[in-house]
TrEMBL record:
<feature type="domain" description="Insertion element IS402-like">
    <location>
        <begin position="6"/>
        <end position="80"/>
    </location>
</feature>
<dbReference type="InterPro" id="IPR052909">
    <property type="entry name" value="Transposase_6_like"/>
</dbReference>
<protein>
    <submittedName>
        <fullName>IS5 family transposase</fullName>
    </submittedName>
</protein>
<dbReference type="InterPro" id="IPR025161">
    <property type="entry name" value="IS402-like_dom"/>
</dbReference>
<dbReference type="Pfam" id="PF13340">
    <property type="entry name" value="DUF4096"/>
</dbReference>
Length: 125
């Protein structure tokens, strides 16, 4: 996915994976507005900002948060992840994490540290 809002191609894949919300008697966002809500969720996850800081162009932060939680509890995000992985594999797109974390030389068993030095003077006993 891009760093901005969902593209048409991304939305076509994603929209059928989202549940249709029950009739809410005129309150809250309509299911047709799920794209804006998903864009708000992605913005929040990408930026790491508090839910209240989601830009108003995506809708009410509270609606976005509640929809995110409801979908999370229903297992929607697991289904989305599996489906997107299958789509990416079918299209030949793969994501490989090549993160490297360097450790201090003593963490790798190198010379030095406590093990190379006696803890007490052997002559002191």
């Amino acid at each position: 996915m891009s760093r901005s809002d969902l593209t048409e191609a991304e939305w076509r894949i994603l929209k059928d994976l989202l549940p249709i919300e029950p009739e809410n008697h005129g309150r809250g966002r309509r299911p047709e507005q799920n794209r804006s809500i998903v864009n708000g969720i992605l913005w929040r996850l990408r930026c790491g900002a508090p839910w209240r800081d989601v830009p108003p162009k995506y809708g009410s932060w509270n609606t976005i948060y509640r929809r995110f939680r409801r979908w999370n509890e229903a297992g929607v995000w697991e289904t989305v992840a599996v489906t997107l992985a299958e789509v990416m594999a079918d299209s030949g797109h793969y994501s490989i994490d090549s993160t490297t974390v360097r450790a201090h030389v003593s963490a790798a068993g190198g010379k030095g540290g406590l093990r190379a030095k006696p803890l007490a003077d052997p002559k002191a006993a």
